[in-house]
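Bug #77: duplicate submission created two jobs. Keeping one. Sequence:
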Amino acid sequence: MRTSILLTLLAAPLALTACNSGDTEMPMQTDEMAMDSADMPVMRSEGNAQTGSAEGTVTAIDPEAGTITIEHGPVEAVDWPAMTMAFESSDMMRTQVAEGDDVTFQFRTTDAGGEIVSITKK
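Kept job's structure:
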């Protein structure tokens, strides 16, 4: 009787290993959702994100890139010099402004540069 128990205990892990031998992907963790990569939002590291506000002039709006380019003055809160830079923005924000508009805007820094949180015409 001990021999059959021992063989069962030895065979079970081998059988389970054989069942998974064709699997090349790691199983999902329980808190992950299954979705196509096209449906997944871009993940941003917000551990080092900073926020700031500035005034400037809209120099370009690019719906395809999802950006508003603004020529702005220095931003002491994030230690930026005066520059012209493209900020990520929502569709709604891109419809609220036009090239040449003077604006005040709030933003947060991202790995790509910056993302506008709110924008208003002056």
